Amino acid sequence: MIRRRLCWGAAALAAALPLAGCTTVHGERENIPSVAPAEAARVLAHFAAVNNAAVKAYDPARITEVEAGPLGAIDAAGVRAKHTNNPAGNPSFSPLVLSDPKFLIPRQTGWPKFFVADTAVNRGTNARWLLVFRRAAASVPWKADFLAVPGPGRLPDVATDGRGYAVPAPAAATGLLVAPGRVASAYTAYLQGGADPVFADGPSTSQLLAGRADRARTPNSVTQYADQPGQGGDFAPVALRTKDGGALVFFGTRYQSRSTYRAGYRLTIDPDTRALMTGTPRTSVTLSNVGQQLVLVPPAGGTAKVSFLSRVVGLVAARGE
Q1: Stretch 255-264: mean pLDDT
Q2: pTM for the structure as a whole
């Protein structure tokens, strides 16, 4: 799991060649590419420039220009906290550089439409990030709803149609172990103790539950957890078919943890959490987090389970009592 508390910023990319011709196509009726490659490159470049400006100045208002959904919720809260503690801006700003972008563009009928940018980043060795851009109509701007950071070599091949476009998987897609529209609710039910899990063991599943069990009751505190799927609007899942018959599913979640401490225990709150906190933390602290996940859902009928490729979690609010 990657815990994310502020917008990561990005570096401007060179704009691609301009679109040729002038043709009117009705995206609400025709099965057309969600975006032209040249426009996708411009969207990514604009996103990069605005994010760098936002993280340099710690300006949460700028985040909402280019982000929404789980990514926007996490980054806006993180930048807001940083601005509270550093109102003059980021004293150690270092822009994130995106390079070698590749675009997974599906053909879609109706709105909303989405595409995925697969880009190298100047963080770590051989690192690539996936950004999901979506918009609800031709009259509104593209915004990034999800960020995923799969490890090198973990991303399976995406299925393409006869024209080379990525194949989308709708929320109710069949032939999968779990339909894309049900993954978020299945995951949060699993975290709440649901039976017969469809998820493979790992850091985001069995190990996460084990860690919660360890923290549930300590000599100094009792902690309770609540998990909810993030569904609808810019939290709605996005999915692409894979060549093996499965699907890559991006989905959002919301988490809360409430820790109650023994009388006389001295609470220590880090500056970013305190900046997002309402109330006074005397005996309890409630933390609200948003998660953005990428999973590989296998085809139905086999023995494989849903496996996590990325999980990015960020604090969005806190309350003290």
Answers
A1: 96
A2: 0.90
